[in-house]
Amino acid sequence: MNCSKTLTDGAQVSLATILKNCRLIFISLFSICLLVSCSDRAEISTTVEEESRWYTPAQLLSGTEVFAANCAQCHGDTAQGLADDWREKLEDGTFPPPPLDGTAHAWHHPQSVLLQVIDNGGAEFGGTMPAFATTLSQNEKLSAIAYFQSFWNDDIYTQWTKMGGVN
Ligand code: HEC
After folding, report:
1. Is 127 in the pocket of ligand 1 (CB under 6 A)?
2. Where is the Cytochrome c domain positioned along the sequence (predicted)?
3. If you take atom 26 of ligand 1, which residue's CA is the nearest one?
């Protein structure tokens, strides 16, 4: 009788140990899952941060009009450029208007430099781009930038942010 009681006790103890171990294993697995899903979420939020743009939908909308009225005749409706090769000089020795859609090199310039180009045009270095300092407001110039940047893919946009971006 005693013997069998001990046996039962022993069985109960080992069952309790197994249960305790199971709980431990379960807790560790749960923590690992939690960690993995947290780090997943961290990755996603960094990507979204990198891809999010500085301009608002309203700026983009107004930029569509500003660009169509002031820039598209030279740079193309979708900022794609109109020359066969924007790197090749024209007969008069000047450069054609380059694409601004991310396929040329506008993305090498931070926003302050893009604004300077739009303000001063190309005259000071022998170019033919007109100056917009007095004809467009600061908001209109920024909107025009938002418009052509909307054609930049995320890779180009990220490169731009690394080379100065909105500075
Ligand atoms: C009459 C044609 C013309 C118009 C209109 C024009 N551009 Fe340009 N743009 C040029 C040319 C040509 C260049 C190359 C520099 C030069 O020769 O002046 C240029 C260069 C640029 C650059 C520098 C690109 C780079 O790769 O560094 C930006 C940015 C730009 N233009 C934006 C605009 C915006 C925004 C507008 C409208 C507000 C506009 N341009 C209107 C002709 C024009």
Report:
1. yes
2. 58-152
3. 106
The reply to whether ligand 1 has any atom less than 6 angstroms from the CB of 75 is yes
The answer regarding whether domain 57-162 maps to CATH 1.10.150.20 reads: no
> Residue 146: CB within 6 Å of ligand 1?
no
Minimum-distance ligand 1 atom for the alpha carbon of 123: 18
Per-domain residue ranges for the chain? 1-52, 57-162
pLDDT digit string (tens) for the chain, length 167 residues: 444 444 555 555 555 555 565 455 545 544 544 444 444 444 444 444 445 999 999 999 999 999 999 999 999 999 999 999 999 999 999 999 999 999 999 999 999 999 999 999 999 889 999 999 999 999 999 999 999 999 999 999 999 999 999 99
Taking each helix axis from N to C end, the angle separating 57-70 and 138-149, rounded to the nearest 10 degrees, works out to 100
